[in-house]
């Protein structure tokens, strides 16, 4: 009997332009999953305490490489606080420690208590970053408790993002983990120095997932998933072929007891099957030919970094996602995905 070989897709080795690798035992448990899928990753600095000095970032980078092996390159980011020092940013960037800096509005998300209370406070830092070509990565949600949680991204565009892009026309800005039609449109309409990352969860789920059959903390992340119309807009942006949109998982593991709790943490752990998750979307959208640009080219081009050498291959063979990985519940837990990473 003749059996047809499963369809394969080989692409240049991809990168993850937004990931939380944590520290300590969690770092050792999760970082190898990211390193198996990606050559490089932009590592978020929201540790406790946050990574605000070049020394702390360099030490964190060493701990990551110890967990992954030297075949993986962590790209470090500086956590911007109200008192972010322009000289420190420039020094860390010149020394090759910082690749970018992250703006968390204070109290917007996990470990953001030391974030920025008013974006005007960091204008000197942003001027330095603009001068030296260091990208600004933005968690784009307002923290005003009066604003409905599902509107916080769209309101952030009006209240903050528009002004930032106007006042820093030469600054590279990444609108991280976009979740709304408004954000996709804003990025598409902005100049070439404004890009966006897109997560697998925001391509797959809408806000119903958080409440399907009872409250489901494993579908809860920030920015929170929105209505179906927004999911469709994000999908359209991801597969559009525009170089402004690129892969950023926002993989954000929390131990199961921190998720399944009265005040459960925000974050979805998607690193183990990230490529399998994304490629399903590109297949469903009839855009497999655009997957490589999204996963492996648009990010390095935006950041001004070289493309990776080598390739990865995905095969159309089903894979069952486990219910648990260590003490973390992964994205797609218990589901069967159509593609597997085979090499
Ligand atoms: C992130 C985390 O847990 O660190 N959580 C999340 O829901 N994405 C923080 C963040 O990126 O907002
Ligand atoms: Zn994040």
Explain how this protein is built:
By secondary structure, this protein is α/β, with parallel strands linked by helices. It has one domain (14-308): TIM Barrel (Alpha-Beta Barrel). Helix content is 34%, strand content 15%. Strands 2-3-4-5-6-7-8-9 form an eight-stranded parallel β-sheet. N-carbamoyl-L-aspartate is lined by residues 20, 46, 109-110, 139, 221-222, 250, 252, 266-267.
Gross morphology is: globular
Major sheet description: 8 strands, parallel
Helix content bin? 25-40%
Distance between the amino and carboxyl termini: 27 Å
Instruction: Write the H/E string, N to C.
Output: EEHEHEHEHEHEHEHHEHHHEEEE
CATH class: Alpha Beta
Query: What count of structural domains?
Result: 1
Count up the helices: 11
Q: Any low-confidence stretches, pLDDT <50, length ≥5? A: none
Backbone CA Rg: 19 Å
Class computed from helices, strands and strand pairing: alpha/beta
Summarize the structure.
This protein is 34% helix and 15% strand.
